[in-house]
Amino acid sequence: MNPPMRKHNSRRPEYLLNDDQLTSRVVDLLIALEEMDADAVRALVDPDIEWRNTGLPSVRGSKRVERALTIVSRLITRYEVVEVLTMTTDHNTVSSRRREIIRIGWFAMHLDVDGHYTFANGLLRIWDDRFSYRRLLRGLRFGPTT
Q1: Angle CA 14–40–74, to nearest 5
Q2: Are 115 and 96 in contact (CB under 8 A)?
Q3: Tens digits of per-residue pLDDT, 63-80?
Q4: Cβ neighbours for 100, distance < 8 A, ≥ 6 positions apart
Q5: 103 with 93: CB under 8 angstroms?
Q6: 3-class DSSP state for residue 7?
Q7: Contact, 100 vs 80, CB < 8 A?
Q8: Could you tell me how many helices (H) and strands (E) the chain has, helices first?
Q9: Which domains are present in the chain?
Q10: CA–CA separation, 69 vs 78, rounded Å?
Q11: What tens digit of pLDDT does each residue of 112-134 get?
Q12: What's the predicted TM-score (pTM) here?
């Protein structure tokens, strides 16, 4: 005979996300960026977020990140994640390799990006995108939008 089961709350606190939930939040972020959906991005980020990009100063705080994304969205005509090559989790961090296109009029940048996303309390705390400027220069294209 099995011992009686103790009743306990089996729900995980909201801030403890499993691997699928973490990767889903990163995918949601990338989709929100493609759609330039500021409300969706705002819902995913921690007030104390730090956004890092290779060779650029870090942007700290959700208000500043929102301001930076607003400026970027006025400059670019299209942002697209073409392919997610890998996505793995390690505790509260998701690492991904993706290919993306950033288009400004007839000018397009094809990038291979290593993204690292660290979550705290269920929200994105550190967003760290890394890429090679040399590979970026090789990926520059001019031509009509497709």
Answers
A1: 150
A2: yes
A3: 999 999 999 889 999 999
A4: 79, 80, 81, 82, 110, 111, 113
A5: no
A6: coil
A7: yes
A8: 4, 7
A9: 19-142 (3.10.450.50)
A10: 13
A11: 999 999 999 899 999 999 988 77
A12: 0.80
